[in-house]
Design goal:
This is HAD-superfamily hydrolase. InterPro entries: CDP-alcohol_PTase-I, HAD-like_sf, HAD-SF_hydro_IIA, HAD-SF_hydro_IIA_CECR5, HAD_sf. GO terms for molecular function: hydrolase activity. One of its GO terms (biological process) is glycerophospholipid biosynthetic process. The structure is a single chain. Strand 1 and strand 2 form a beta hairpin. The protein folds into 2 domains: 254 residues, HAD superfamily/HAD-like (Rossmann fold); 154 residues, Rossmann fold (3-Layer(aba) Sandwich). Helix 2 crosses helix 10 and helix 8 crosses helix 9. It is α/β, with parallel strands linked by helices.
């Protein structure tokens, strides 16, 4: 166990550990329901503790195969159950590894520092990959100096967890070092291969890339002529497009995922899954940078140029519906645990910076959702003021703080109108 921790009861008497954001590790966070807190809040929980702990418990419940027990009578909560927020991270809360200044104030407002005297629940939905939800949690806690839990995070590759039982041997691409292998193994994938493993077995696979000493040591020795790779998962942005693309193409054109073979029909290779489809994203550079979606487009074009056939790949993350469905399940479980209402919050305000994924996905999901998903576009990331987004949000604001204010003011007006109608001050026309 790394660093001091406390055990504190969450809603309904369940226990959630509290770990310091300074000393916690991915391994210690994964040992059970956990809230990560800055050292100054470790002994005395902050205003963010209640939401973080309750979301963590809800996440463990929806991911557990255990049979539900006796329904719990929720304690009285100061957190609103009527609406919630879902935030993208890069370009909304963080840019280039540093907090966007208004993000800190936005979190304070959601955690009760507002004129309405309430707290509002929130989760984080990011297409960023290559790290476990626990690592994302630890990183954001340090950046924003707030209490958060892994249960509040939904990454682009989170839905891939549900595919672990479908394939035995898989290739995982992207990210730094061995991180994506660790994520995949944490999701339950049984036999995870990386491009480094393949290059270690046959260094001629990638003529222009040689493994460094540390990469060679970390890569696992395998004989791939005897192995069938059943699926390819791009968990995070590739650090070496040329090498990764070469290896993926070799598998796509192989016989049943066996390296060193060539299919005569080019339709015997494994399926390819991407954790998201963002062509560009907001980093520390003044201009947007190309992302995983660009690799997907490039791969499909190269495959068609070589084989003459169209390559069909699958993407998760935003704007895919599975991500929003998972978020709805999480919020519904949280609301059931904390307020005894077995339904998601009436309105979810999704705050994002990318029209093609954040706004498009929110708007599309809203068409079929049982509750309202309300899209808010900020101008601190991919989208820039003065341009016209291809997918129109319900509202466009400058920063995430403006987005929080917009939603809270809208909900106040709705509640005020409903109260006036109920007391006969105004009537429906």
């Amino acid at each position: 166990m790394s660093g001091p921790f406390l055990v504190a009861p969450s809603e309904g008497g369940r226990f959630v550990r509290r770990l310091s954001s300074v000393t916690a590790t991915r391994e210690s966070i994964s040992l059970g329901p956990t809230v990560v807190a800055p050292p100054k809040h470790l002994m005395a929980p902050s205003a963010a503790s209640e939401v973080a702990a309750a979301m963590e418990v809800a996440r463990h419940e929806i991911e557990s195969a255990a049979t539900p027990g006796t329904p719990i009578t929720p304690d009285e909560s100061a957190v609103s159950s009527d609406y919630a927020y879902a935030f993208d991270i890069d370009g909304v809360l963080i840019r280039g590894g540093r907090p966007i200044p208004e993000a800190v104030e936005a979190m304070k407002m959601l955690n009760g520092d507002n004129e309405y005297g309430i707290k509002v629940p929130y989760i984080f939905v990011t297409n960023g990959g290559g790290k476990t939800e626990a690592e994302r949690c630890l990183q954001l806690s340090q950046q924003l100096e707030i209490e958060v839990s892994p249960g509040q995070f939904i990454c682009g590759h989170t839905p891939m967890r549900e595919m672990a039982d479908l394939y035995k041997t898989v290739l995982v691409v992207g990210g730094e070092g061995e991180k994506c292998r660790h994520v995949a193994e944490g999701y339950g994938f049984k036999d995870v291969v990386t491009p480094g493993d393949i290059i270690k077995d046959n260094q001629d696979t990638t003529p222009f890339r040689k493994l460094t000493d540390s990469e060679y040591a970390a890569s696992r020795a395998r004989v791939f002529s005897d192995i069938e790779i059943e699926a390819i998962f791009v968990f995070a942005d590739s650090r070496d497009w040329a090498s990764d693309t070469q290896i993926i193409l070799d598998l796509l054109m192989s016989k049943n995922g066996r390296l060193g073979t060539r299919s005569e029909t080019f339709d015997e290779g494994p399926p390819v899954f991407f954790s998201h489809n963002d062509v560009v994203w907001s980093a520390s550079h003044d201009l947007t940078r190309i992302g995983m979606g660009a690799l997907r487009v490039s791969l499909e074009s190269m495959y068609q140029a070589i084989t003459g056939k169209e390559l069909k790949t699958t993407a998760f993350g935003k704007p895919q519906m599975g991500t929003f469905q998972f978020a709805t399940r999480l919020l519904q479980q949280w609301r059931k645990d904390t307020h005894g209402i077995d339904a998601p919050p009436s309105t979810v305000y999704f705050v994002g910076d990318t029209p093609e994924s954040d706004i498009r996905g929110t708007n599309e999901y809203n068409k079929t959702a049982d509750n309202q998903w309300y899209s808010i576009l900020v101008e601190t990331g991919v989208f820039q003021e003065g341009t016209t987004p291809r997918f129109q949000p319900k509202a466009t604001v400058n920063t995430v703080l403006d987005a929080v204010k917009h939603g809270m003011e809208r909900e106040y007006r709705k509640a005020l109108k409903a109260s006036m109608q109920a007391t006969g001050v105004i009537t429906d026309e």
